[in-house]
Amino acid sequence: MKKILIPLLLIIAACACKKESGVSESLTIVPPCTGNTWSLTPNYPFGIEPNPIYAGNIRFVCNNKLYVVNAFKSRVYIYDGVTWTWVNSSYPVNFNLAYAVTFSVGDKGYVVEGSATDHRLWEYATTTNTWTQKKTFPGPNRSLAATFSIGNYGYVFGGKYADKFRRDLWKYNTLTDEWSQGADLPGNSSGRANATGFTINDIGYIVGGYKEIYGVSYTLFNDLFVYNPLFNEWSQLADYPGIMGEDIASFVIGTSAFVTMNRYNFYKYSQSDNSWTSIASYPGQPFFRNATVSLNSKGYLLSDEEMYKYTPKFCFGVGAIQ
Q1: Rounded to an integer, what distance in angstroms lies between the CA atom of residue 305 and that of residue 262?
Q2: Pick the CATH number of 48-137 from 2.30.29, 1.20.1740, 2.40.10, 2.60.40
C-alpha cells in the first residue's frame, strides 16, 4: 500500500507545483501610474488685465524659469513653477507685441516684432533685466511665423504677408548677431502660417499651419517636418492624427512633444518611434494664439484668463515618462 501511496503523492505534488508555476507566470505586474492630467495653476497674474493675451504671447523659458512680458504694466513676470514674481522693465520704444514670435537661448530671450512690415529683434537678458536691440530680421515681411532653438541659434520659419505664405527658414546666431537663410521646406510642401515649432535633442520640428487663397480655398495642414541643422535639410515624418484647426500649440517634455490643433485634444509625439498617441484633453477656456512652454518636466498653456499645467504620465517601476 505504501508503495502505491508514495508515487501518487509525488504526482499530486508535481501537478500542484506546475499549476502554481503556471498561474504565477501568467500574472502581469502592472506598475502604478500617475499623471496625464491637467490642473489649473493658482495666482495667474494676467486674467484681470487689459490685453492679457499679448502678455502671454511674449514669453521665454531660461534657467528653469518662465519669463512673461506684460506690456500694459511695463513688467516682466517670472514663474518658477510655484510662485509668480515680477520686475519693472524698460521696454524698447514702439515695441510691437502683436503677433511677435519668441525663442530662448541660454539665459536670454529673443523677440522678433510681429508687425507684418517691422521685424526688429530684441534681446532680453534675464540676469540683468535689460533689453538690447539686435540685427533686424532680414527675411521678407510676414506675421504668424513659427520658431524653435538649437544650440546657440534661434530659427524663424514660415508665416504670411497678404496672400503670400512663406516656407523659408532663417537662422539667427546669438553669438555673432548675424542672420543667415536655411533650407526652404521641401519643394512639394506648401508655405504656411500659424504652424508650431519645437526642439527635441537638438533637432527642430514644424507641424501644422494653414494656407489661404482668398475667395478660393482654405487649407489646414497636419504634416510634420523635422529639420537637421548638421545637413541643413528637412524630412517629412508621421502626420498629426487629430482634428485640425487654427488653435495650435505645442510644448516638449523629455523626448516627446505635446501638440494640439483644435483647442482641446492633445497628442504626444514620440521622437524615438515617430508615433502619435492621444493624451488627456485640455479642460480650460478656448484660446487663440496662445502661449505654451515646458518647465521642470511639466507643460503649461497660458490662455486669456488662466494657465493650466500638464503633468505627463509616469509609471513607477518603469522609471520613465510614458
Answers
A1: 18
A2: 2.40.10
What would the pLDDT profile of 203-246 be if each residue is shown by its tens digit?
999 999 999 887 678 899 999 999 999 999 999 999 999 999 88
* Three-state SS annotation for the chain: CHHHHHHHHHHHHHHHHHHHHHHHHHCCCCCCEECCEEEECCCCCCCCCCCHHHHHHCEEEECCEEEEEECCCCEEEEECCCCEEEEECCCCCCCCCCCCEEEEECCEEEEECCCCCCCCEEEEECCCCEEEEECCCCCCCCECCEEEEECCEEEEEEEEECCEEEEEEEEEECCCCEEEECCCCCCCCCCCECCEEEEECCEEEEECCEEEECCCEEEECCCEEEEECCCCEEEECCCCCCCCCCCCEEEEECCEEEEECCCCCEEEEECCCCEEEECCCCCCCCCCCCEEEEECCEEEEECCCCEEEEECCEECCCCEEC
Cβ-based neighbours of 16, under 8 Å, separated by 6 or more: none
pLDDT confidence of residue 2: 44
How many Cα atoms are found within 13 Å in the side-chain-facing hemisphere of 270? 11
Give the burial string for 74-111 (b: 16+ CB within 10 Å, else e): ebbbbbeeeebeeeebebeeebbbebbbbbbbeebbbb
What are the boundaries of each domain within the chain? 48-137
User: What does the pLDDT read at residue 3?
Assistant: 46
The mean pLDDT value for 87-114 works out to: 84
The arrangement of strands across the sheet holding 291-295 comes to: 37-40, 307-311, 298-302, 291-295
**pLDDT tens per residue, range 9-28:** 444 444 444 444 444 445 56
pLDDT of amino acid 305: 78
